[in-house]
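Researcher: Structure for this, please.
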Amino acid sequence: MKKILFLFKLILNSEIFSVILTPIKAQKIKKIVNLICLLLVQFPLFSQTLSGIIQSNSPIPFASISIKGQSIGTASNADGFFEINDIKEGSYEFVFSAIGFKKLKKNISIQAGKNTLDIILEPSSYDIEQVVVTGTMKETFLSASPVKVDVVTQKFLKKIATNNVMEVIENVNGVQKQINCGVCGTNDIHINGMEGPYTLVLINGMPIMSSLSTVYGLNGIPTSLIKQIEIIKGPSSTLYGTEAVAGVINILTKDPLDVSSVEIESFITSHLEKNIDFAYAPKMKKVDVLLSANYFKMDNFLDDNDDNFTDIPLSERLSLFNQWNFKRKSQKNLSLSAKYYQEDRSGGVKEWSDYLRGNDSIYGESIYTDRIELAASYELPMDEDVRIDASYNYHHQDSYYGDTKYEAFQNIYFANLIWNKSIGHNHDFISGLTYRYQTFVDSTLANINERKFIPAFFVQDEITLNRKWTSLLGIRTDYHDEHRFIFSPRLNLKFKPKTYTTFRLNAGTGFRLVNLFTEDHAFLTGSREVLVVEDLKPEESYNINLNANHIFSLGRSTGTIDVDAFYTYFTNKITPDYDVNPNQIIYANLDGFSVSRGLAFNIQQNFEFPLSIKAGGTYLDVYSVDDNNTREDELFAPSFTGVFSLSYNWDKINTSIDWTAKVTGPMSLPTFPYPFERVEESTWFSQHHLQIKKVFSESLTAFMGVKNVFNYTQESPLVDWQNPFGDDFDTSYAYGPLQSRRFLFGLSVKL
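Model: Predicted structure, token format:
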């Protein structure tokens, strides 16, 4: 601007200008122009600048900066720095945006001269900078982790009002809830088509759920208690040991600081399901405390499929949780937690009642469950990053299946000594010693009494090769009395050629030690003798996973696309044989192998207006091949599953709408002899849920919704239900929803 004014004055003072105009007129114009130039120099209306750095946890490159209603703008450089020149003085609405982050609108007053302002952007809803711990056993940003981790956020948990985590987690791509019993409603989680016992379930990184308890335990975790859920698909035994064959589900509970002083949430459905959550977080100087309770009751008999049995089990459940985070002078962590869980679950014909437990004329199934969980985490007061994680859980099941009694006790003692060490700028080192002692007592005639002591050692090194390449190498060795040393290596590579594009290669092994009690533990009742006809080898799996993730822009909105290709080879599968001798259960390793392979994709788009859409699908091929080279498809492993969610926020009236859906493709089903034949492959079906939420104030929120909007249910999951005490009665033909459409209404209060 100054150069232009100088040139203009030079022309006015030249002889040429005087020739064109009369001397008097030229002199007057010169005085006016000189005055204007003086004013412009003294008051530079267009010389103001705004500069700063756009960042989140780190500087954000190539962010967009614009002024509403103005044509000027710029973008940040590779270090997040930006500068806009030639801005008039005044107040403006600036818009800051970047792929992967929430758009920020900010009113800024521009003064004369240079204006400096640093801008903080929040990660957008698909959580590019979500903190995860499961993949590497330490906190790291999701985008920086060399291990592929799927995260179920608290926001997603709130899209479906439910009394347990099972109803939510089944809407994660590649994860399936499988009902194992059509009467009592026991269920488990399948990852990529592999059965429930091959998935390790953790709470805050510790294996509190295992074997017997997994069948019922996930139903007793209220979503109100959960901060987020992290899922690793594929073997993860290098860090977590046995049972992590198909994958790992790590449930992270809320921190006391994440909870208001008092929170109450309750809902009721048209099927008369009643649920209430209570949380209390008192403000204390030396410790952060969280007290929570969940109560659920369903006592309404429903029989929409007309088989004279309950469509969903009757249940009454109480869960209590207490967590203490101590504020130490060393700033090191010390936390203690305790959880108590009690459930009375039953199912059967309408005439059955609790006082008829064990009756041989009126059929019913009844399960009493008691659980106690204790956990602690302690960081040693030293310069080195060393901590001890420890847990204990007690599980007691007292049950009747018709007139057959089944009672079992399980204790799990667990401890981890973990050392984190950064070596130079390139190595992030972690090592640990693991102690696990587990007991199981079956008080039936099968008389199983197992005691297992499994020590282990693991080491892992995350190596930053350069700005684009990161590698992770790890190995673990477990010692077992029967199998001696078991080694579990892993290799992970992350390649990031561009800021918003990431490729991952994950390869590793998993193993599972034999458990002579599984989710089919009812078969261990009565007079059957348990025989192990050979030295059982640990079940082993070998997995490779390729992942590609890209963050893209569509106009001014952002989205992400994620693609996985996976292959798991499974050997030494241990299967119980009930057919050779009706009085025996014979255990042996499978002479052959199993395979789980497929392709998965996820797409999420966050539009500029308050709408977000997420869709995903998984193509699966899961099968076993025996020693005769005969292929057999895995039961209850659908060839395709798809998930969809749509969220719209109507900010003007503080209302949000969430639609979630799951599509399930054909799957192989159990076969039954004449005259009880059933189709051996299911048809395509889908299940949809709708929820509307209205925020009246910071203290009060109301929500209402519809579950199973289109009212799809499968036929009766029971075979020969007319004769439940007969030899042909079977409860395992459950592949789809059993509960019909229901409406719900709830309230959430924060004080």
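Researcher: Any notable elements?
Model: Residues 1-12, 14-21, 39-46 have pLDDT under 50 and may be disordered. The chain has three domains: 2-42, 48-120, 248-750.
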